[in-house]
Specification:
Helix content is 35%, strand content 28%. With 385 residues, it is of the alpha+beta class. It folds into three domains: 11-172, 2-Layer Sandwich (BirA Bifunctional Protein, domain 2), CATH 3.30.930; 189-291, Rossmann fold; 311-382, Translation Initiation Factor IF3 (2-Layer Sandwich), CATH 3.30.110. The strands form five sheets. Strands 1-2-8-5-4-3-18-21-17-16 form a ten-stranded mixed beta sheet, with helices on both faces. Strands 12-9-13-14-15 form a five-stranded mixed beta sheet, sandwiched between helices. Strands 6-7 form a two-stranded antiparallel ribbon.
Length: 385
Amino acid sequence: MTEPLVVRPTSETIIGATYAKWVQSYRDLPILINQWANVVRWEMRPRMFLRTAEFLWQEGHTAHETREEAIEETEKMLRVYETFAREHLAIPVYCGEKSESERFPGADKTLCIEAMVQDRKAIQAGTSHFLGQNFAKASGIKFQSREGREEFAWTTSWGVSTRLIGTLIMAHADDDGMILPPRVAPTQVVILPVTPKPETREAVLEAAHKLAAELHAQCFHSEPVTVEVDTRDLGGGVKNWEWIKKGAPVRIEIGPRDLENGTVALARRDRSPKEKEFLPVADVAAGITALLQSIQDALYTRALTYREANTCSIDTRKDFYAFFNTKDGGFARSHWCGQAACEEQVKTDLKVTIRCLPFDAPEEPGTCIVCQKPSPRRVLWAKSY
């Protein structure tokens, strides 16, 4: 290895020291840094994408004049991550607040999005932290207020990492490879020319490129449809399976017979690789936007249906322990009294943690599944990565 790897402190300490130099007056606030950074952590048990010794992440750090502004920023960024997961990655997530034991060290509040993947475990897919004045006091981020007083700034931090890629893979992939939602697929449509005979090759390639241009002229969420014509000199089956494994949302085959019939063979990646439909070539470009949206919606609906089928409300300790002892995973909505000791007991016994206190959990008086003391509402429990 030619470059050293350095295990560094959390970014809040580095950004805080910088903000302390930059911020002098309320006129300097608010301030925001968004960075893409490679980070090295001391991971004893690396797991590809989910927990690795080195990973890439996007993170933001802000400093504000008031507590209210900082809280607003914290909540806004969580909703940005929720929207991206839902509308781009086709992943339904729960939004909520972490319990004190699961909170980011030094934060007053940690908000998160939690996703269920296909082994029914939870993945914390993104976080947004309200840091209060804790890091400002530690780093000396002070400013002169509008009244002329010296005050500490109110700060936030938030981020997502390559763990989100792992979440995407584990939420949608199947035994044949990746399945990419169209909104994040680098190639939304791949055209596979079928040229068994040299004398038909030129005509097939011409038709393929003509169709590619027509498809690219269409828009999907205000962007041109991304199309690739795979002209490599490989067997059709080999190329087809390569694109299946890569997760391209739409595959279109064009061969000599298709030219004669004025049709193409079209396959959706969200369905069986063997399932194809033969469509008039004139209809393909006109319908591509609706088709891509249909795939996007189908992936989200499938993930949501799976999550709901594996989430249940449990009211007794016996049923709660049976649920996690007899299944590999799943989400349980159950009552918790708020005591760290009860939370730790479940974690020790079952390796199950409170994933979040969901924002949408209604007031619902009950009793804690561990100690049977009163509980105001249910929280979300699961095994996690």
